[in-house]
Amino acid sequence: MDFKLTEEHLMIQQAARDFAKMELLPGVIERDEHSKFPTEQVKMMAELGFMGMMVDPKYGGSGLDSISYILAITEISKIDASAAVIMSVNNSLVCAGIEKYCNEEQKQKYLVPLAKGEVIGAFCLSEPEAGSDATSQKTTAIDKGDHYLLNGAKMWISNAPFADIAVVWAKNEEGRIKGIIVERGMPGFTTPETHGKWSLRASATGELVFDNVKVPKENLLPNKSGLGAPMMCLDSARFGIAWGAIGAAMDCYESARKYAAERIQFGKPIAGFQLTQKKLAEMLTEITKAQLLAWKVGKMMNEGTAKTVHISMAKRNNVEMALNIAREARQIHGGMGITGEYPIMRHMMNLESVLTYE
Prior knowledge:
Layout: H1 7-24, H2 28-33, H3 39-47, H4 66-79, H5 81-101, H6 104-116, E1 121-124, E2 140-143, E3 147-158, E4 165-171, E5 177-183, E6 189-190, E7 205-216, H7 228-262, E8 264-265, E9 268-269, H8 274-303, H9 308-333, H10 344-356
Parallel strand pairs: 1-4
Antiparallel strand pairs: 2-3, 3-7, 4-5, 6-7, 8-9
Helix pairs in contact: 1-4, 4-5, 4-7, 5-6, 5-7, 7-8, 7-9, 7-10, 8-9, 9-10
């Protein structure tokens, strides 16, 4: 697809592409094998302005539109889905929620360092007994006069072991869901890491445990309550995922196309056989269709007309598309497709998480 990008869009796309190839690609296999959080690479993303891309510049962000954001996250997702998750959570879930639902004082205190990438954020909704059924969550924030007393646990939280700031969704005395900001170091707040993952291995995942954590009253998100608040944040994240999945699919396609042109069987490259050509043609067709769907949603988001159903449709379709392409690409690579020499299995494992989350 040729999207008729502006000069600014092209510059952002190229900057993300160069960063992904020069800084993410060299160590991506090692980080995945050893479940190593990309600390240095995250610092570089912050320097490039990728940790608060759509945040107003007065709060330390880049002030860019949604198209700029998806161009960057697509390029990063081509190389390292774990780095893309860190970027997505900070941008779409944490920064977006604080900018939309916090007061000026909270924005200056929390949003500015988050958007600049000086600290990392976590978005905390899922619980051991409350995954997609977010209304059944058990974490509570009870008003104690001069503070809120937070008790409960969150699970499957990206960035949890390294996050400095956590936007936590909890129920008050009336059972109403509220957002509250918890800072690392508050007594009773711990973040045990989840080990043994076979997907998004370099993205740190963990629990957040709250044992009578006293949270100042000024940390409550004042401008929205109810399930609609975290759902808005999830809309923003799903949009990024719809494009990140395209990035993974594009990388699988390019790897398969190149391999098919080089792999000689029966006296000629396997790209010369119609069955392989059919697979490659269908891959490219599905990627293009997914780009069209996600691009339309992006334009609607810029216009303010996108709804949850539109964003969810793009996310669901594009991740399924990417998984199918990864499997077809693996077949074209034959046995080599399961090795670390090629990116196929890494994308496939990461996409299994992406299919479920948000």
